Structure formats: structure tokens, C-alpha cells
């Protein structure tokens, strides 16, 4: 049988353990550990957040927003992720409406295969584009696996009316050339309709995290329907 002193000691240990757990939980919720799925904050951003007083696009803030998107969905943020991430607003000044963030894991030009993840914020459009062959590589063939969130994928085929997507004015004055819609939910895969065909995507209300598998990617072969877009 425990003595009175032993009971008091055991109670103090239990209280101390609970206090440490509470502090740890609070730190996680406050975002002290950016990899924690419990650090689930808002993923809806004002467009002005991504631009300074002179209208210059902040890649750093865009990358932070993508990390927030990953935390929201409980997607691990690996070491060096932010440095490897590529982000662009295509020169539109409207990143929340039209843009892209991507992490290229491999792009093997010798054996001609690639793998990357790309990320769309809620209601963000990946602009309409297509891939042509170059002197170095054939036209890219690709397909997409939705990991988290929801993406509306558009390509050639019978136009979907009404579309779920809202094409922003900064993309060809709110127009596109292809509008056959595929609703891509987590765990679903869809391929490009055919090599060289135009396509674009639009994220659902919780954004989208997509894995792209494809033949080799060649920047020189990427063409956009909106020729006013700036693409490096």
C-alpha cells in the first residue's frame, strides 16, 4: 500500500507530465513545428500579401503559402523543400488567381522520364498550355494523380457546361480554348488526352496537391495559349 508521501509524489509526476504535453501541443498548434499536421491554419490569402509596395512578386511569401497548404493537408514538409520549390505568377500580378508552385524530383533527359509534385492554392488556375517536340526531346506526355484537395482538369473533348472553374480575367480576358472537365479527387489519376493537346487545371476550395508523372520535360517545348504570360 502506498504511503501518503508516495501518493503525493505520484500525483506530482502525473501533473508534470500533463503540463509538458499541454505545452508541446500548444507549440505545435502555434506552428512551431512546420511539419506537424496539427499546425492547420488558413490557406486563403489576399492577393496583396504576395506583392510589395512596388508590385514585385514575393517568391518567399508564395513558398510560405505552399507550406501552409501542405500543413493544412498533413503533407510532410521535407528538409530543403522550400529551397527546391519553384513558384510563378506568370507576370500577371494575380498569384491567387493564376499561378503555379512545383517541385521537380527528377527530369531525366537521357532516359526521358520525369516526376514532380505541383501545388495550387484554393481557386488558383494553372494556365492553359501544351507541349511540342524540340530538337532535344519529343513532345511531353503526362498524367496526374491527386494527392490532397481537389482539382478540375480541363482538356480536349466535349465542352463541360457549366464548368466548375472560374477563368480569371488575367488569362486571355477570362477565356480558354478547351473545356472538357475531369474532377480529380484524392487517389484518382487522369492522363493527358493526347500528346500535344492543350490542358489546364483549377483548384477546389481546399487547394490541390498533385503528382505529375510524365516523359521528359523540356521548357523550350512548353507553349501557352495566352501568349502574354511570362514563363521562364
Task: Walk me through this protein's architecture.
The protein is an alpha+beta fold and 232 residues long. It has 2 domains: 1-32; 45-224, Sandwich (Jelly Rolls), CATH 2.60.120. It is 19% helix and 29% strand. The chain has helices spanning 4-29, 59-72, 81-84, and strands at residues 86-88, 100-108, 113-120, 125-131, 142-155, 180-184, 189-191, 199-214, 222-224. Strands 1, 2, 3, 4, 5, 6, 7, 8 and 9 form a 9-stranded antiparallel sheet that branches. The protein starts with a helix and ends in an 8-residue tail after the last strand.
Summarize the entry for a quick read.
The chain has 232 residues and is an alpha+beta fold.
SSE topology sketch:
Elements: H1 4-29, H2 59-72, H3 81-84, E1 86-88, E2 100-108, E3 113-120, E4 125-131, E5 142-155, E6 180-184, E7 189-191, E8 199-214, E9 222-224
The percent range for helix content is: 10-25%
CATH architecture of the largest domain: Sandwich
The biggest beta sheet is recorded as: 9 strands, antiparallel
| Helix/strand structural class | alpha+beta
- Radius of gyration (Å): 22 Å
So how many helices? 3
Q: What number is the mean pLDDT?
A: 88
Descriptive labels:
2 domains; 232 residues; Jelly Rolls; nine-stranded antiparallel beta sheet; 3 helices; 9 strands
Amino acid at each position: 500500500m502506498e504511503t501518503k508521501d508516495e501518493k503525493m509524489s505520484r500525483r506530482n509526476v502525473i501533473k508534470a507530465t500533463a503540463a509538458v504535453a499541454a505545452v508541446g501541443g500548444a507549440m505545435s498548434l502555434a506552428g512551431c513545428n512546420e511539419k506537424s499536421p496539427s499546425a492547420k491554419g488558413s490557406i486563403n490569402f489576399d492577393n496583396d500579401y504576395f506583392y510589395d509596395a512596388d508590385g514585385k512578386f514575393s517568391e518567399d511569401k508564395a513558398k510560405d503559402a505552399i507550406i501552409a497548404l501542405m500543413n493544412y493537408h498533413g503533407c510532410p514538409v521535407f528538409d530543403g523543400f522550400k529551397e527546391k520549390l519553384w513558384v510563378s505568377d506568370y507576370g500577371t500580378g494575380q498569384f491567387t488567381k493564376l499561378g503555379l508552385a512545383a517541385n521537380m524530383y527528377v527530369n531525366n533527359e537521357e532516359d526521358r522520364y520525369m516526376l514532380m509534385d505541383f501545388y495550387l492554392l484554393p481557386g488558383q488556375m494553372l494556365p492553359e498550355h501544351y507541349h511540342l517536340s524540340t530538337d532535344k526531346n519529343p513532345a511531353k506526355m503526362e498524367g496526374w494523380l491527386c494527392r490532397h484537395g481537389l482539382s478540375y482538369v480541363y482538356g480536349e473533348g466535349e465542352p463541360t457546361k457549366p464548368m466548375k472553374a472560374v477563368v480569371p480575367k488575367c488569362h486571355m480576358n477570362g477565356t480558354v480554348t478547351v473545356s472538357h472537365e475531369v474532377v480529380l479527387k484524392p487517389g484518382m489519376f487522369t492522363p493527358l488526352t493526347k500528346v500535344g493537346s492543350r490542358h489546364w487545371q483549377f483548384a477546389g476550395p481546399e487547394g490541390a496537391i498533385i503528382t505529375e508523372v510524365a516523359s521528359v520535360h523540356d521548357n523550350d517545348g512548353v507553349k501557352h495559349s495566352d501568349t502574354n504570360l511570362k514563363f521562364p
